Amino acid sequence: MTIPASTYRIQFRSGMTFDRAAALVPYLKQLGISHLYASPIFTALSGSTHGYDVINANEIDPAIGGREGFDRLVKTLQQAGLGLIIDIVPNHMASSLENAWWRDVVEHGENSRYAHHFDIDWSRRLTLPFLGDDFEVELENGAIAVKPDPQTGKPALAYYEHFYPLTPASWQDRAEAVLQLTDKADIAALHDSQPYRLMSWRDAPRDLSFRRFFEITGLAGVRVEDKAVFDDAHQLILELVRSGAVQGLRVDHVDGLADPKSYLERLRQEAGPDCYITVEKILAKGEHLPADWPVSGTTGYEFIASLSEALVDGKHIRQLRQAYETLLGKPVDVQAELRAAKMLMATRNFAGEATRLLQLATTIAAADNEPLEEKALLTALRELLVAFPVYRTYGTTEGLPPEDADLLLKVADEVRQGVKAPDPEALGFLTRIMAGEVSAAASDDAASFRTRLQQLTGPLMAKSVEDTLFFRLHMALALNEVGAEPMPDDFSPERFHQEMQERLARQPDALSGTSTHDTKRGEDARARLYTLSEAPERWAECVSRWRQGNQSQVVQLKDGPAPKPAVEWMLYQSLAGAWPTDLAPDDAEGLKALEERFTGFVEKALREAKLRTDWADSNETYENAVLDYVRHLLSPDNQAFLQDFTASLQPFIHAGLVNSLTQTAIKLTAPGVPDIYQGSETLDLSLVDPDNRREPDFAALEQLLNQVEQVDPANEAHWLDGRLKQQLIAKVLPLRQQLPDLFRKGDYLPLSATGQQAENVLAFGRANDEAALIVILPRLVFNRLQEAHWAPAEIALPEALAGRRYINLISGAESALETSFSLAGGDRRMPVILLSR
Q1: Residue 791 DSSP symbol
Q2: Bridge partners of residue 835, in order along the sequence
Q3: Helix intervals (H) in 513-638
Q4: Rounded to two decimals, what is the model's pTM?
Q5: β-strand 761-767 against 747-751: which pairing, if any?
Q6: What span, in angstroms and rounded, lies between the C-alpha atoms of 104 and 185?
Q7: pLDDT digits over 418-462, tens only?
Q8: Regarding beta strands 248-251 and 83-88, do their DSSP bridges make them parallel or antiparallel, or are they unpaired?
Q9: CB distance 377 to 429 below 8 Å
């Protein structure tokens, strides 16, 4: 298997085509990239901005160049010696009439050849929750009529620009008569004879007949656990791999599959042993990827969480939390907040999924003569869902593997001892279903229950934590990231080293990402916001002053002020993370550009919190009041605030830029495959999607890399425009291709510093029989920004690193090191990366 030395993620669509990507190949090669890593390339919904709403998995999207454009890109990559990794989406497809498979299911119902390609409950009519109101209301209002489909000419139920095909039995031999129907009762009767039921989108959370992707009813679950479905959905994917056009696959949302292990085993068998495969999988702290999955690792969310161990000031983070709680006027009960978010998801957003599980449980109870009340079962089910500490278990039709069985028992015990303990008999019954301890007559239903519960716990966790709790708790926004846990209490470099050693042992070939299309903040915004933990009192004073200065813009509404203090804290912190390094307070054009991005983020943040407004039921009065507050903050007329904000932010910006180089150096040299998200080779101060999916200025990036001017850490401009980071990447990445075994398999050796600034040093080595690498990085520099050089500090070298001659990859200087390395006099802001000669 060819393991990438590094990857560069490109988001196709929204203007990015195969030919445009091909034009970037010389730049990527110069940067040191070994593999282009492409977002989904298969035909997606018209106008798709991301490609995860696939409508044809066996066609390369004409919107981005089609097969011919793809082939040109592959040829260009191969001529340059670069490989290609593509993002595949086995879990779901668009539930749109543009999707020929889905359209056939809508038209023919359970008689469609694709009826079982999708995860549909055929005990009732297929629900299509795409109306603005109930069917009866829309019919009465004249929004639904019978018209010929513009594409086929056949009779269809027309709803604005949508034409839902009629099942043949309901119109054949009387097409003209059906097309003449105008009586609402007749149209309703025609609708009732269809294998589908049109319904309001608002009813989807509690009444849906198909499994969806998270809460998105426009994405229907696909049953790739069925070999026939797998084969149909992977024809082109496997052709591209077998032909040599594609060297790697990134599997999207692997936890959504019925049986991830079996799917990956089949994918490995069909793709062959040489295909590099990674999975999008979120690991909880201390959780590990199943060792028997035939993949190289994850896409790296846990790597981001590990970086916080190295860059957060563990001694002062509690002071930041105390300042936040003082602002709120009460302590934050994280567990209570987490429970509330999870219960909201279980009872509202995923009510339909929970109801389906309840139906299965009651059926099993009846089959096994278990006298349990439905209400008791539902309560126990919700408590079990809420208590789950990881994304899912990996049970099969045979039951749970031993480690998951132990986890289930532990979770059930916690539920049983909790303050909201459900009926113990109901809880015990549910755990027996999960374990497969049911009668033979109920075994199929038990297997279905197990699969569906496992497919639900992941989305419920994600929507509860990442898309609810992280928009409610604002103490330290840098920690509110995909794969992280809510408001941890302590951080330590020692734990960082431990996690890197585990990474080397368990998944040395996993991707190490720092920004993705799904991260809540760009990597450099996060690096900057880590520094708040170093100066919590200073930050709290700033927020207090800014709140007071803008107090006149707070609107008093019936349900409280808009924004509330906690939201103000979030706004100032988010703005601090996203503030461009070169934005001056009197730059009206720059402020306007930031406002356009920032207001979109704020609207999303308010709705994701689900407190005073929501996606399903927006509170425009509240939203407009908060957005007006934001617009005031960024108004060129608000110079008193803007001057203060800009000046106060400078030390956080500069300390954040040091953090940026440190986390980049870690990514380049620690275990794992460095993944560069488009544009993040310089400064990525993006906000949550869609902001983080904007196309970078590739021409400017290429020009910056090719500038003749010597990059100089003493030149502040070279920090502010990100070229130091870009040059660091360009200097180190080629080494990973020259010395692949050192970076893939070389020992990871934590190093310790002695001296008065030991806590400001993070150091480690990599070594094998071929070469050695020493990496010495600054950390926690906020309060030492005035100190240009290191005070005396020594890094002791173990035998594997000692007695060698090294070259400094940044400065080019050479030196012989016997037993230690002295930092004294060096630039305390810059990484030191030494390669043995």
Answers
A1: P
A2: 773, 807
A3: 523-530, 536-549, 565-578, 588-609, 620-633
A4: 0.96
A5: antiparallel
A6: 26
A7: 989 999 999 999 999 999 999 999 999 999 999 999 999 999 999
A8: parallel
A9: yes
